[in-house]
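May I ask you to comment on the folded chain given beneath this request?
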Amino acid sequence: MDFGSLVTLALIVGGVIVVRRFTFRQRALSFGRRQARALQDLARSFPDDNPGVLALDDDETFIYRTDQVSLVETRRGARRSKRTLGALTFRVAPGVYATGGGGGSVSPPPPESMTTIDSGFAVFSDKRVVFVGGMHSREWRFDKLLGATPFQGSGVLIAVSNKQKMSGVVPQVASGITPWVAFQIAQEVEDHGIEGARAELEKAATDAAAQVEFLEKNILASRAQVEKFQQQQARTPSTPSTPTPKTPPATSTHTPQTIEVVGESFHPESMKELRRYFRSSGNTEHIVEAELQRDPDNPHSPSGKAVKVLIRDMPVGHIPESLAPRVFDQIDPDEPLMLGSRLWLDKPGKTPNKSSVTLFVDSRLEI
């Protein structure tokens, strides 16, 4: 290739990079301005008055209502948990997330197949999220919360112990506070009260405005530069010095009964496949749906009532023998029992490998 061709190729490549950066910046500005305005508006009026669309309990606080949302549900039960602690995370642009007051990013949503079930509105309180649609309604109570994750940038998927499948709400139009941000605000109110949530909301609004200003000043800002600015901007969120006193009822703290699965170390190939599925390099936690099946032919079971545990159709261990007969008798031979679980994936190649599975016991099983 002669010098002239090399120069032409360099100009073409350079032009593509410039166009991509300009397109990214324009999209980031559009998203960022919308997010900043919504956060600022809510910070000024927080908390809003209950519009009366949902009857609240005496000790329940209305947080926000989002209109024009879709109810979505997983076709499979696998779940992935990622909760932001101490700060609100919002989308700056497709694939780019910012954490107001705390810095950092949120992982992309799990690659699970989702189905749209209905359309309607969602109400967020400090106790629950409620979806009301034309054909269906859903309630996700925080006292049964297992985990939550952002979905499609603005929506939220929620895992609760009394539902087999993960489900959530996704906005149909880009306006106002997104369901993911509303969910985080509701969690802040539950944990720190109104004043604590207001403080975090104000931090997020300030940081969103600063990031919009950064994009306005940097015409060719790249994704990496935006993320670097987020890191430089990050600060450790402080706990409010005078939070609103809050005494939750005894039922507001839900610690599910658990079963520690045994024999995970005998299934390295399953753990390898699960790391690949969850895009994990190790030292990660995932809230997933586990399947319990009868295993009467297991030669290592003195009772002859072994119960094997599978995640995404892959064996990951067994119920301890001390509990296995009782669990075995509650499983339909023709239909496996599904329970929520916490999957810990250790680093590949680590010896001993401490990948583990903990089952959450709910009304589907008595032990």
About this structure: The chain has five helices and 15 strands.
